Amino acid sequence: MMTSDDIVIRVRGLRTQFGRSIIHDGLDLDVKKGEVMAIVGGSGAGKSVLLNTIIGLNRQTAGTIEIFGEDTARIGEAAVKRIKTRWGVLFQGGALFSSLTVAQNVRLPMKEFTDLSASQMDELTAVKISMVGLPHDACAKYPSELSGGMQKRAGLARALALDPEILLLDEPTSGLDPIGAAAFDALIGDLQRSLNLTVVMVTHDLDSLYAIADRIAVLVDRHVVIGTLDEMLNNPHPWIQEYFHGPRARVLASG
Question: In this predicted model, what pLDDT tens digit does every residue of 177-208 receive, in sequence order?
Fold first, then answer.
């Protein structure tokens, strides 16, 4: 049984809507320390909306979100800033600033949240870029000079800049070929184990679920169904059955 110390993200009764469009209604979610939680769902189910609401880019209509035991809607600006240093986010596509080099992109969180000297930031930036498997000469390149896979790795280096405890990923393998996606999954798995990260990953990639997910949160009917891969394969909900046993899942399910 999970205790409060085991849970780093706790969502209760979450309701999000835009105008009259209700995305989530009464959604509950617990993310355990050290696990890889994958979030899946159909188009328009609100996967990215949920991730953005957790990190405060969207404001919920109702419900609570606690990060490390603190209700982010009820704490002051200084406390929110402190919590932000404990998570890193890889947005879909990398979301790098095109006018900055890779190194400058990775340094941004350090400049905003730390008092490190320029030389310390340079050293740490080089470490993070190497950590995600990019060559040293990538430091001086601009995002437009990188492949899609390298852009994602650069975005991941930036997400890891502050040594976060939680890593949040939005469609990390989208746009990658199967070999590149498998390599990125392996990288996330290696980093999660070596750094003892808690990973929350929005994805549509079934291969990622098989490769690295400990539990899966499926967004259906404005709520969430949570379980292991085996539990999802046996869940009777029609959409879950279609997702995990449909034509594109047959090879995986039979393997």
Answer: 999 999 999 999 999 999 999 999 999 899 99
